[in-house]
Write a structure and sequence with these properties.
The structure is a single chain. The chain has three helices and four strands; from the N terminus they run ααββββα. By secondary structure, it is an alpha+beta fold. Strand 2 and strand 3 form a beta hairpin. The two termini are 24 Å apart. It has one domain.
Amino acid sequence: MITWSEFKTFTLDQKVSVLFERGTFVMAIRYYNYKINLYLLGKDYVEVFVNHKHSSIEKISLLDSTHSRMKFYYDQIKLPTTVIGIK
């Protein structure tokens, strides 16, 4: 299993390949100029920021459970309590 610390050292192309081969697509949201695809990779949720105007992936990052865009995820799916900071 790939850990986040290992995954974040990969190039963008390597990250895309790993997510395609080993990740599980969860859902997508619209957020400003992006379509953000949420994937589960091992125990980590990973966001892929797609710029529609340029048809390109601009960023792949670990899900920030404190960010205000979490409300868009909450409206559509039930995330584990460890993701939303409840213990």
